[in-house]
Amino acid sequence: MNTTPLTPWSGAQAAAQELVRQHASRETFRPLTAPFEPPSLDQAYTTQVAFVQQLATQRNTRVGGYKIAITTPAMRALVGFDDAISGSVLADSVYASGHKLAFQNFQHLIVEFELALQFGQDLPEREDAWDRHSIAPYLACAYPTLEIADDRFADYAVLKKGFFSLVAENAWNHGVVLGSAIAVEDFDALWQTKATAYINGKAIGQGHSRDVMGHPLTAMAWIANQFRSKGKRFLAGDWVTTGSWVASQFPSAGQELRFEISGLGEVTLAVY
Q1: Measuring CA to CA, which residue among 23, 95, 92 is closest to residue 60?
Q2: 256 has which bridge partners?
Q3: Measured between alpha carbons, how far is 193 from 209 in angstroms, rounded to an integer?
Q4: Is 238:143 a contact under the CB 8 Å cutoff?
Q5: Topology (CATH level 3) of domain 63-271
Q6: In this structure, are residues 267 and 179 in contact, taking their beta carbons and an 8 Å threshold?
């Protein structure tokens, strides 16, 4: 298997430190400029690794899961990039359903309605690329999921000119709420079932598994191949959020969000 480690970049640590500073100062998101601007996608991921490591050290935590973003044509058009991107979720920001979230701790809070898939076995080394069929036997369960993000009032028109900064900033992830587990035996039903997003009990949108890269297992194969190209692989217990089934929401204090996959599971989050 040919692997290509992330390109070393001497500016990664400084760029990551600048992102940490911007977060602490609650600055509006703007694409990084010289000398902090990652010159390529690969070096943006190198910066992301440094950024996540700096946050983990600062908060005495570790990586607890992974995420895929930019999975729909609409989002790709919005940010000006024609592929998905990946990020990490820190363990101290992984919450159980029913979590209460302080609105004041965010600049411009975003919540997305997703499905997380968890590996039940270590992925073996493999010569061939993963696809939705070959990845399926290694999965153990799924979770309806609410992803917490913060775009720091980004100007999306400007973002198109500085997309690597979004990659470097870990795709804006600020946490994940995991709902009730859906057993692998129910996956056939899961792929056929619509899910509904609610705010304060009112339905605000519906989605289907095919809304994410055609199928969530396609998304899992995509990130497994991305990891594989860097000489990494997923282990039993690792999980990945696979992209939003419903349009992203910008909730306010006093709202409760719920994502229900009919007859299979749900997840809730209260913003105060």
Answers
A1: 92
A2: 270
A3: 8
A4: no
A5: Fumarylacetoacetate hydrolase; domain 2 (3.90.850)
A6: yes
Q: Which residues, including other chains, have CB under 8 Å from residue 50's CB and lie 6 or more apart?
A: 12, 13, 15, 16
Q: Which amino acid is at 220?
A: M
What distance in Å separates the CA atoms of residue 18 and residue 32, rounded to the nearest whole number?
9
Rg (CA), the chain: 18
The residue type of 193 is: T
Cβ distance 65 to 240 under 8 Å? yes
Query: For residues 121 and 242, is the Cβ–Cβ distance under 8 A?
Result: no
Dihedral of CA 111/117/123/127: which sign?
Answer: negative
C-beta of residue 10 within 8 angstroms of C-beta of residue 36: no
Give the residue from 145, 150, 125, 167 showing the smallest Cα distance to 29. Answer: 150
Read off the tokens for 51: 């950024």
What burial class does residue 149 get, using C-beta atoms within 10 Å of its C-beta: 0-12 exposed, 13-18 middle, 19+ buried? buried
Q: Tell me the per-residue pLDDT of 210-241, one tens digit each, with 9 for 90 and over.
A: 999 999 999 999 999 999 999 999 999 999 99
- State the pLDDT confidence band at 7, using cuts at 50, 70 and 90: low
Place of tokens 């809304």: 211
pLDDT digits (tens, 9 = 90+) for 17-76: 999 999 999 999 999 999 999 999 999 999 999 999 999 999 999 999 999 999 888 788
Task: State the pTM of this model.
Answer: 0.94
pLDDT of residue 5: 62
Give the pLDDT score at 40.
94
**249 has which bridge partners?**
111
Query: Do 109 and 79 touch, CB atoms closer than 8 A?
Result: no
